[in-house]
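To: structure subgroup
Subject: Chain for Friday's discussion

All,

I'm putting the inputs and outputs inline so they're searchable in the archive.
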Amino acid sequence: MRTSKQKMSNYQEIVNLNVGGTKFSTSWHTLTWIPDTFFTALLSGRIPTVTDESGAIFIDRDPIQFALILNYLRTRDIDLNNVNIRSLRHECDYFGITPLSRRLALCDDANHSTCGDVLFYGYLPPPLIPPIANSNGRTGNNGSRKNLASTSCEGTSSRTHSRNSSLDLRTIGRIPSQDQLNRSVRGHSRAASLGNTDTLKGMRHTEANTWSDNVKVLIIKAHHNWIAVAYAHFVCGYRLTDSCGWYVAFQSPVQESTIERIALNAKSGGSTTGGSTTTGNDVMLGIASGPLVKLWAFSTHMEPVRRTLIGTFNLGVRVEHLLFVGPQLVALSGAGSRSKAGVWHTSTQHWQTQDVAHLTTHDTAGSFLLLGTATGCINYIDMQKFPLRMKDNDLLVTQLYKDPNQEPITAISVYLTPKTSLCGNWIEIAYGTRYGSVRVIVQHPETVGHGPQLFQTFTVHQSPITKVSLSEKYLVSVCSEYNHVRSWRVTRFRGMISTQPGTTPRAAFKVLALDAATPHPHNDCGPYGEQDEEQIFIQKIVPDTDTLYVRLASNGKRVCTIRSVDGSGVCCFVVAECEGALRPRRLLVCGHRSGAAQLWDLTAHIDRAARAPHTAPASHTHTPGDCEESPVSEGGPSPDELVRLLSACDLDATPLPSLHPPLTSPRHAP
């Protein structure tokens, strides 16, 4: 007969557990053979226990994952087939099962690469802070190290990582780990990263604190083979060459005010500045803060790089858009009846502002700047005639067309057909209104001088039109209802839009973006791309996500899914059309909260998706830092993907897209 002591020993050996409603029975030894775990603390009384009606210890965790962990504790082995490694690792970390957690971490890391996937094109680490400029625009000598603008191809210490670079082995910019990024975001000092605390001397204490808190990329602009990356108080310029890949070409001086807008123009023509010629200038950079605009010219083909401050200009109202029309710098503001346009002309070196009442949207076509207004008019400024009107102090703002219903124009897109000996030049314009109408107007070669004629009207939207794009093959419009997109197939004859059979509906979908209502949005979803190519949307769901969805503008189908290689959140992005040795490349450039920029080559995926829209490419495992090929039948995020993204986003604190769009420009191809 068994003694009471033996009964008590057997009772202590068996442990009954209720994990998430599922009953488990195991031994004391199985649960405690790994020291310092959740179970050792639970069974020793260091963690208070809760029991169910049967006396089993209740643990409020996932029973499916717990079954895998319990089987590992029993056999010291585990089968990972059809197992979500990330979820299992999360449970192991909770229970403190260190040996299994380390195995899972190694398995997880084996599927991840800090060098990205085949589409990852380059990593541009956070740049060094430039010297503070004096009031005259010259660099002050305050003990800072040499300006990075003086770097050249050979032997530069600021070489960045690029897939097509022959100097990759000498790169100094290693991709940081997530722990390093977290530390840098929590407490990063720009001066300390330089080893130069003198750089911030003379700045107010609050300004220095602001700098340490703002390490993220704010704006990215691209033109030809150049990229300008804007931070809170300075801009860094990168150039792409076949021999050197991406390298730092210039940096702007430190600005006292926070940068709100930038404009980049590469391969600008010769001009004179203050009596000296600047024929060698290959890039011009404009920076706007509030109503003030500063313009620099950089000569990057000489050593050291020469930087010339062309001038500081005042628009009188806050600059909402800054752009180049050819070599002319244009600043626009759409503040209702106080709307203004400012132009700096490269040949006359003259800055001129003029009231352009009720400005709402704009687009460019060659040397023309088209302006949409709240009164239903489309006006234009011919930059070629601009110098001829200098004596009259007139920007020569001319009315081109007036909407038949006088609806406020909120989006505009111009398509210039190829010049031929048969038809001359045929101008086509698509525009959207505040009341949801989309109209196409055309200018016939034989009716030049009589104004464009109304060609077709679409009334399929019920919300204000925020974007419209007219290309060689498609007409795409976007309204403010969570970026609802409608597309039509355009029929052309000899390169011109045709009335027979006209446009046919193509697709309708949404490009949901919950951060579209930020005060200064630089995450425009598009469409991006040249007008004779397949255009794309870039979808960024929540503000601090590391995931972007690339989708065809014509039908909304997903091209690929981009995730940052270091797990840092994407702050801004742009699509750059870069020239290459064999063919142009379409690069997605992302600015990150860590201060770095990451580049992805989308060219092959876009071509494949455009050529075979009805075939689904083989999918593969989706990992961070990877570009996932997804079936073409998919578009935006799936319900599971959307829930995962929204789980890290507070919807109550996230502003939703505005129903009254600000001054917008529909075309965003560099």
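Points worth raising on Friday:
Residues 236 and 251 are 4 Å apart (CA to CA).
Residues 63-75 form the longest helix (13 residues).

D.
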